[in-house]
Structure formats: C-alpha cells, structure tokens
Amino acid sequence: MADLHQRPIGATATLGRTGYPHVRSETGGTIDIVTGVSEPGFNPLDLLLASLAACMSMSARIAAREMGLNDRLSGVSAKVSGEKAKEGPSRFQTLTVVFRFEGGLNAAEQLKVAHRAEEVCTVSNTLAIKPDIVLDPA
Question: Which PANTHER family does the UniProt record give (predicted)?
Fold first, then answer.
C-alpha cells in the first residue's frame, strides 16, 4: 500500500439543490454518486465496501510477499458484501470478505495470507474500531 505520508489523502463531496454528490479526491480523482436501485455506479455504501475490497486485495499481496509466497500467487480478488443492521443506527452489522487466490497456494497458506491481510489493511483496521469523527461546520 502507498505510504500515506507521500500521497495526499481525503475527499470532498459537493451536492447541489438537486442531484447526487460529486466526489473529488485530494489527488484529483472524481466519481459521481448514484442512488437509484438500477443505476450503474457507486453509492456511499458501495464506496465503503469497495475501499475494504481494494485494501484487502492489496494487503493480501503484501502478506504473501512477507511470507515468501509471492512467487506462487499470480492474482487475488477480494469480494466484500455487507449485511445491514436490523436495529439501532443505520450501519452494517456484518462485513464479509471472500478471497479468491490464483496460483499455487494451498488452503492453509490462503487462510494465513487472508488473516495477515486483515492485520495489514488500514481500512479493516479502521473499521474494527470506532474512529473519532470530528465535525467542523465552518
């Protein structure tokens, strides 16, 4: 994963009187948010799940390299789904990460890589605790 001290991080969402948010990253990337059931694209929940999926896949590759297994890992995908809580504040109750490893890793090695990926991933580490959210209405 990128060194956060070298890459600016953050995002700004802008929203008009009507329509959906437009999001811009600190590095200039953009994405338009959609909320329609059949509209292709990302809604805010998709972005959260996508962040975890991307981080876990990159972290799995890092973990495989740390364990000396990188030569037998030709690819990895991480599919993330979420189950919303039935009670309490609107949130995900459960996040499920399904890894698919390509190459020659056996089941035990895949499990070790998956667990190490969770330890390495900044997004999973952030979601595992309740981070402070500081609001500045200025």
Answer: PROTEIN YHFA
**49/51 Cα distance (integer angstroms):** 5
Closest CA to 71 of 100, 108, 109, 99: 109
User: Which domains does the chain possess?
Assistant: 1-42 (no CATH), 43-127 (3.30.300.20)
On whether the CB atoms of residues 79 and 100 are closer than 8 A, the answer is: yes
Q: Determine the average pLDDT of the residues in 46-59.
A: 97
pTM of the model: 0.90
pLDDT value at position 10? 95
For residue 116, give every residue at least 6 positions away whose Cβ sits within 8 Å of its Cβ, in sequence order, or none. 59, 60, 63, 66, 67
Query: How much is the pLDDT for 127?
Result: 96
Nearest CA among 107, 112, 54 for reference residue 79: 54
What's the pLDDT score for residue 21?
A: 96
Which of 7, 91, 102 is CA-nearest to residue 48?
Answer: 91
| Triad 50, 134, 57: Cα angle to 5° | 20
Question: How distant, in Å, are the alpha carbons of 3, 16, 108, 138 from that of 119?
Answer: 16, 39, 17, 36
